[in-house]
Amino acid sequence: MKQKLVIFMLALLATTTLFAQNKITGVVSDDLGPMSGVAVMEKGTQNGASTDLDGNYAISVKKGATLVFSSIGYATQEIVVGDGQTVINVVLVEDTEFLDEVVVVGYGTMKRSDLSGASVSMKEEDLKGSIITSLDQSLQGRAAGVSAVQTSGAPGSSSSIRVRGQATVNANAEPLYVIDGVIIQGGGNSGADFGLGDALGNGKVSTISPLSTINPADIVSMEILKDASATAIYGAQGANGVVLITTKHGKAGEAKFSYDGMFAVSRQNSRIDMMNLREYAEYYNDMVSLGEVSANALYADPSILGKGTNWQDEVFRTALQHQHQLSAQGGTEKVQYYVSGSYMNQEGTIIGSNFDRMSVRTNVDAQLKKWFKLGVNATYAVTHDNLKLADGQEGVIFYSLSSLPDIPVYDIDGNYSTMVREGYTTRNPVALAMYNENLLKRQKLTGNIYAELTPIEHFAWRSELGFDISSSQADTYKPKISLGTFQQGSNSISQQINTSTYWSIKNYLTYSNTFGKHSVTAMVGQEAWESRWNYLRAANTDLPSDEIHNLSLATGTPTTNSGFGSAAMASFFTRETYNYDNRYLFTYTFRYDGSSNFGPDNRWAGFHSLAGSWRFSNEAFYPASWKEVLNDGKIRVGWGQTGNANIGSGAWESGMSKMPSALGDSQRPANIPNTGIHWEKQVQTNLGIDLSFFKNRINLTVDMYQKISSDMLMTMTLPSYMGTMGNGSSALEAPKGNYGTIRNRGLEITLDTHPIDNKNFGWDSNFQISFNKNKLLALDGTANAQLIGYGQWSDIVSVTEVGESLYNFYGYKVIGVYKDFDDIMNSPKAEKFPEDGVFNRNTTVWPGDLKFEDVNKDGYINELDRTNIGSPLPKFTFGWTNTFRYKNFDLSIFLNGSYGNKVLNYNMMGQGYNGLVHMNSVWTNQHNSIASRARLEVIDAGKPYTSGTWADDVTNVRVSNADTKTPRPTIADPNDNDRLSTRYIEDGSYIRIKNITLGYNLPKNVLDKVKMDNVRLYCNIQNLYTFTKYSGYDPEVGASTQDAKGLTFGVDNGRYPSPMTCSFGLNITF
Amino acid sequence: MKNFLKYFALSAIIVIGATSCEEFLNRPAEDSYTTANYYQNDVQVEQAVNYLYNSPWHDIRRFYIYGSETMCGNVYQSNNAYATLTVNGTDEDLVYMAYSLWSVNAQCNTVINNILNSTGNASQAAKNKSIGEALAWKAMAYFMLVRTFGDVPIIHDNTEVIKEATYNEQFKVAKEDVYEYIIMTLEKAMELLPKDPYIGKYNRIDYYAAEGLLSKVYLAKAGVTGTLNADDLKKAKDYAKDVIDNSGRSLTPKYSDVFRLQPALFQQTGENLFSWLWTSTASQWTSGNAIQSDVALTGFSEFGDIWGDWKGPTIDLQDAFGVSAIEDPELRKDNDDRRKVTMMMFGDHYDYFWVDRGGFDFYRFFYDDTYYPVGLESNGSNHDWCCQTGANYGKHIWGCGADHIAALGFNAARMASQLPTHILRLSDIYLIYAEACVLTGDSDNALTYVNKVRERANAKPLPSVSFDDVWKERRLELALEGDRWYDFVRRSYYDMDACIAELKAQRRSHWDGINSVYKSYVVDDEGKYAGPGAHKWDKSTIVYNAEDDLTDVKPSMFTVPFPTEDVVMNQNVGSTVDPIRVNVRETFSYDF
């Protein structure tokens, strides 16, 4: 009341001061509170002021003047000073019209309107609200041209990110991540690199994400550079796209504190339709009736049996997650700070798995002199993973599917029970999950120190020292286990400690100036980095008890391993931009890179790029009236080169590995060297158009691109007779070199609309769709005709022929089953067709066996009839976000999907006796889809037999459901019905309700009462439902974690499914 | 001038910058040798071939020790493609066998080239010895390849083939020519290898080991054209005789000592010409012997790495030894020491396994709840007899940790023991000599050497010897050592009908009802182990189930298919493409 009175008095005073200039005062704020440093200008004059730390300003203006309030990143507001008005409080709104937003482009920033390349921004709001443990997960469906597929549903697990398709077959086709200018060091990508042995499978790719050590709540924006004109400034490291991440920085003003807290519950909603005990007993009895197995009294009457153990229910659990973050930011005009601390703990939906992370961050920027700015960004994080072998044929998921329902989880003594059947033990999946311990602790200190010097006008010099000091400690412990043939007779323990130190130094000088309508910037710079790593591993056996897991307690023979190495890169780069009247824009970049990965003659390579854009809506001839409809339009054209050196060091020389023998020490050549190995090159052209309609209410961006990667770095795939296949511990590694050419072509459309934007109600919609097609154009310098991908061990599941798209599944086409004897005789000859005419249901082809297509039409079914049976790559992917705002409520619904990709359901196929639809053993559970199996019946029931039955007489048996595509059950499986065929290829298209968030912001009057700046409550549901025809848990299957060569995609081999998660969160700022 | 200085300074910075950049970027391997700085002295040149005695052979083990032994009828496995001779080109054991053998060839070729190109101070003698060993191993690998796959490509120099990019244009070479290539390789090896035997420590391959292999190659090659070649037989005979007479090696006095862990036992007389010499002292995968895991009884050792009890020697092999698993074990009489060494049967007692417990007792293993190695809480077998032929592997197993320590002073590790695997023994050479003699009408000499082999095994000497006697003797002497299938293969070259007839006549299947008879013999009415005689031996409920006997054997089954993944890359190696003929000695040579 008192305040109101004062204002009233002041107003009275002002109106009575005739002929004098009006003095206007007020407070400028944004939704976080008062803003300092906001420019307040009297329009059309040089008269101006700026706000102080509390957002106050004072300015004397003429009567009827217009005040202009402006601040970078905020929409400029103009307010006409009314008669007698002396107080004007302004709330500035952040600029939602991106046009003049400043974006990070790598070694500098640019106004978005000046960009000629293709890049996408993701801002804090896009990250907020959805549960993101690892920031790569946030890229899914959010940015056109960026595909993100989670490799696992395990907590803290990685996503495979592909920017504009797969452009290289290196295991590491992931984009380059740069946080505040520091390249993130991925470290090891496979479980073995961390020292977890094959506890996570033998694949090149593991589910451990290098990005999960970064706290997503510290991030203010991400910029994804897609085309070569944008990425070329990263030269040799930019071929797979670049993700630039900017963390939060303080703003001048009084300290603001924020608390973000979240609590979530996750569970697996779907179950695979495996047989329960009753169904299994019926199947068993059917096998008995066919003479395949002997009768078992236990199953004699299925109707009296219960449902048995549902192993899927036993290994999955409802998992809890919570995270908390506290941050403070603020500062003076000269020094700003941002500090935060966070903790997150997430349980996995498979029993026993969990992940936690603790992180702290300090970002400080200080303007020490007018021409000298200094800053430090640093973050430290510790993560703990409790990992389980979920994937693969020996993983928890697969065993939970294949274990029979007649085995209980525990025996009567409360121990894990198990069953051995003819030497085959299905490992009790619960025991498997709970027994062995795989712990991974990672620590990372990363950040940079920079200095920015601006002593001369138009010139800016920036020096930056970046660092990344990481370590990981992997501990494994295996207790004694005795479960059938699954035995660990003595306990064993191992520990591996990896450390790596990375430093980078960069210096670059930027000149920028404007001459009338011409504005130019020129930048030259240098960068060098070095990375050193080492590891030490120790293992031992026979600890006195399972209680204390300390290596030094072990009494067995200890083993140790160690190694160290380094890599380095040196680069020089430049970028020139020219802008004429905001109509014509040109950018040229060049980077010259040298990498230690290559031999002396091939280290250096240069990468150019050129881009131009034309903002036709700023042309004089562009009618002003059209601006009502199409208010902004820009056409962009870009061309550029980038490179890739991701092949590891030492490919140009032949290293030796230690290999002990009973004759003493020995050294063996490890690989076949290729002294000519050099840079992989990529050339990309991009044509894009940006259109904004109705005052930016509708924004459309369309990009078309072609990128061709040539001299692609890869390991030669050689036939086994070249001696390079097999166990990595014994075989020579095939040479690595520059062999392939891949082309990716695509189209990306982003439609961003704001259909309703009222005071109380708003609706924003963002739809993006990406089409990409790739093709292996050539495998030069190698006679290889194809790239080969493996399933679990040595079984080929995909073959990429030259001229085809990558990673096509490779196998036989099923056209049905052999109906009867005549059908066998009249069809192309099966592999096990008896030349002597003597048929036997255990050793030759038989009615009910699968009939494969004779692809080469030679009259025989054999290995030459294998062919492309589907592509794991989608025809298009899309994402659609709708955000609604009603008063203080907001609702966001995010859908994403994929169309046209096939999934190889490897669980169904399995290995040997394991497959879920094999029907070649009665010791593993079967999927209910085998109900459609070929049912054999007698043709002439009256025919007499002296030995055997009608079931052994090929001429007297036929299939009753002749149009089925599921074979007969057979223990011997002479026709190899379980070989890879279209039988296991499924449509992986899906639409997923990925995320729904409902938020509520406390209204201003309530906030004022509780002295808060902002309070937000929200709830969120992730992965609510997936519309798909896929019969497994989850059609979203990325790079294979089981292929040691890393050349398979879309193979569902016991993938840890992504759970549905419900969360409740609270954000408070005060 | 000022400008000049400026430019000078600038170019100086660039030059210095560029050179230091080169230094900055030059990072050869830091924590290991490279081929450029290894092979510098005699020690390194010798060490450079040590690993050819173990690591690259590691992944052949499953095919060799039970895949091929199942095919030939020595080992029983139920529902198994090897048992029905129908293994296909995607079979994992087959694929890894191919990987392993070709890996040996590639490693040998590479090491030979590296030694030849080395620039250090190593002596010529050291280089010759190492190159000779590598050539001998290469010949061994090719010998296995030709007998497994028949026609195979010849990869003489991997680097060369890669350089010329002809690896996907390779054709299979006719097996006659592959044999010639093996002979050429062994001749070169013998030229380089030292003749002086390593007295007291017969661990490395010498001249006579290579010569022994050469005699075996000639015997196999003799029939390759379809009829036996007298020249080849004579060479087999002559080379074998030279080894027998002049190598200074002799048979180990006690048969079982050949298969023990202690060098003092298996190396005592130099019987073993070629052996895989595994080690358990380092954690490097592929350096240790992992065979026990696949063939021993679950729970036989405390490492939790064994799953082999469902496969075991066939009834047919038992018949050959003159024993039966369904007869009262207390009354079992062995004609021959080799039976018990080869296979464990109900009632057998071994003093060399489980030494810390006074030996291994096969009555108790399945039926006594308290009987398992120290460190294990059960044997995991559900207390039932597993292998339905009534026998399990006796070769390739070494016991539990205590046995390893007692023999060598250090322990084994999970899937890694120090037990050597012998792949060419002197007794084999005796029998090669005997066979070549029989086939060339010299039955007197044949009889002498067959009986020397029998004498060592305490088997009754034969009064006279025929081809069939030598044929059977080979089976008994070398059973489960990965050789028998290859006997069938080489015999099938010239006498297919006999091979098919023998395989069809084998008792390859199993007994039904064996477990309950065994159990009641040693377990009393309370269910406790009571020793033999707890109940009377009553075999009346045991019947032979013939379901796994072979009814259908075709000539094509004597070669196994090439891995299909190779066919994906190179259709020239497909099953329907004819091999090419090569003039081996003109096309390939070892001119060093």
For the structure shown, list the relevant keywords.
heterodimer, A: 1070 residues, mainly beta, 22-stranded antiparallel beta barrel, 5-stranded mixed β-sheet, 11 helices, globular, B: 592 residues, mainly alpha, two-stranded antiparallel sheet, 23 helices
- The average pLDDT value of chain B, as a whole number, equals 92
The side-by-side strand order for the widest beta sheet of chain B comes to 1-3
Q: Distance between the terminal alpha carbons of chain B, to the nearest Å?
A: 64 Å
Rg of chain A (CA only):
33 Å
Give the assembly state of these chains.
heterodimer
The helix/strand class of chain B is mainly alpha
Largest sheet of chain B: 2 strands, antiparallel
Question: In terms of per-residue confidence, which ranges of chain B show pLDDT below 50 for 5 or more consecutive residues?
Answer: none
Please state roughly what percent of the residues of chain B sit in beta strands, choosing from under 5%, 5-15%, 15-25%, 25-35%, 35-45% or over 45%: 5-15%
Tell me the helix content of chain B.
40-55%
Radius of gyration of chain B: 27 Å
Mean pLDDT of chain A: 86
Question: Beta fraction of the residues of chain A?
Answer: 35-45%
Task: State the end-to-end distance of chain A.
Answer: 24 Å
Main interface: chain pair and counts: A-B, 112 and 120 residues
